[in-house]
Amino acid sequence: MRLTTHTDYALRVLIYAAVEPESLCTIERISGAYGISRNHLMKVVQRLSDYGFLETVRGRGGGLKLAMPASKICVGDVVRKMEDDLAQAECFRQDQNSCVITSACGLKHALSKALDAYLDTLDQFTLADVTRKRKALSTLLDFKTVA
């Protein structure tokens, strides 16, 4: 399974916000730290906010922060919500499936089990789990201070 860039960036934004959960961070700082498009991050942040992972504060001195503790954000949940299409092959799409062997082929079952295992594994990790090395992350992301 391969994550889309959108989901990859979403996880990076959440990791960034989890490194200093007490502080507001900005799209500008996140963009600079990762060297990725500010415009793309704006779309990602909007979706993360819509799904309740981030809280945004508008206006001067505004920014974003986690909407809940990192220990409550499941990596599997983030992937499920940010990925628009987890269908791994045409046969997963009932309304757009023109594969002539679908009714006799066992590949859909195998791929489905693989996807379930993938998501089950991601469900075992929270944002807190993947940000345990906060000091190292803060250095790599060029934070000034981390508790």
What features would you highlight for this structure?
Arc Repressor Mutant, subunit A; Tscrpt_reg_Rrf2; 147 residues; mainly alpha; two-stranded antiparallel sheet; elongated; 7 helices; DNA-binding
Report on this structure.
With 147 residues, the protein is mainly alpha-helical. The protein has a domain at 5-84 and 126-140: Arc Repressor Mutant, subunit A (Orthogonal Bundle), CATH 1.10.10.10. Helix content is 48%, strand content 5%. It has helices spanning 5-19, 27-34, 38-50, 75-82, 107-122, 127-130, 134-140, and strands spanning 54-57, 63-66. A two-stranded antiparallel ribbon has the order 1-2. A hairpin with a 5-residue loop joins strand 1 and strand 2 (63-66).
Structural class based on helices, strands and sheet pairing: mainly alpha
Number of strands: 2
**Oligomeric nature of the chains:** single chain
pLDDT average, as an integer?
88
Q: Quick one: overall form?
A: elongated
- Tell me the strand order in the biggest sheet: 1-2
Q: What is the architecture of the domain at 5-84 and 126-140 at the second tier of CATH?
A: Orthogonal Bundle
How much of the residues is beta strand, in percent? 5-15%
Rg, please? 18 Å
Low-confidence stretches: none
Helix count, per DSSP?
7
CATH superfamily of the domain at 5-84 and 126-140: Winged helix-like DNA-binding domain superfamily/Winged helix DNA-binding domain
Order of helices and strands: HHHEEHHHH
The CATH topology annotation of the domain at 5-84 and 126-140 reads as: Arc Repressor Mutant, subunit A
Helix content: 40-55%
Identify the CATH class of the domain at 5-84 and 126-140.
Mainly Alpha
Biggest beta sheet attributes: 2 strands, antiparallel
User: Terminal Cα separation, in Å?
Assistant: 35 Å
Protein name: RrF2 family transcriptional regulator
Keywords: DNA-binding
InterPro entries: Tscrpt_reg_Rrf2, WH-like_DNA-bd_sf, WH_DNA-bd_sf
